Amino acid sequence: MWGLLIWTLLALHQIPQARAQDDVAPYFKTEPVRTQVHLEGNRLVLTCMAEGSWPLEFKWLHNNRELTKFSLEYRYMITSLDRTHAGFYRCIVRNRMGALLQRQTEVQVAYMGSFEEGEKRQSVSHGEAAVIRAPRIASFPRPQSYHPGEHPCHPVNGGSGRRPILCAGC
């Protein structure tokens, strides 16, 4: 974290000092959500919504490591997400008046792996019941289980709607 702060101060020192009276330092119009979940294989587009005097330059970081050099591109796109893309993203925006470090957003990648166990067979006599255990499978987020008579539903007032909750008679 200190390294990033020192780097930002050094970057500010290298910005030319010619400033007009009407110049505006960069500022963020919006901040990213703290956590976002996206499906493996989908496209992800992150945006750095900032304003200020032209030209604004943007740099993208992943887990505090540089992804891009400063450029005029305010978006960062990953065309096909995989699990290695999970982590913390943020941008730095600068102009001749200063630089700002965006609040980080955590990107979580939802996936479903292959079945970990091979084929299983189970025999029962006619009229007998069998308990079939679900095969193990690597996934994120963890699978949810529902019992007979329970249905997944989402909170109505003030809930995020991201995770189902159990309720009877939804």
From TrEMBL:
The keyword Transmembrane helix does not apply. Gene3D superfamilies: Immunoglobulins. Keywords: Signal. It comes from the Eukaryota. Residues 1-20 form the signal peptide. PROSITE patterns: IG_LIKE. This is Protein sidekick-2-like. It comes from Hipposideros armiger (Great Himalayan leaf-nosed bat).
